[in-house]
Sequence to fold (152 residues):
Amino acid sequence: MNAKIENATFHLIGLTGKSLFKDFGHEVPSLASKFLGKISEIPIHTGIEAGIYEPYDDTKPEGIFHVGVLTGERPSSVPDGFTLIEVSGRYAVGTGKMDRIREVHQQLNDWIISKGHIRMNKDYIIETYHPEPDGERVTVYLPLQLRNQIND
Fold:
């Protein structure tokens, strides 16, 4: 896996869910399937499906997640029943096969440590999904702390 650092802003129109962290593996795809049945209601988007996830927090059992499609810029309106979420930051970015997503996350975390960067464990994790002939690929964005930022 090749990793890099990137500043990025994401505008996602989609649906919001909440579940036990341990159930994300089931709940996220379930909500994504529901969303895909309604995607035609979103007039303008890039066609890139994405998920935005609250990072695991061992002090609470549940987390929030958002599934949807990215828009190129902030839309002027959002169709009824959908949520707009905007996230910006500095990210470590890595790509791999969707069926090996845990490895992509682990390798990216290892890369962050090996390069002396510090992960922002309170900020959203972003994943974008890209269908390919040999199977879906995922790009993972893990938020990084800026060098002059102090943890609070």
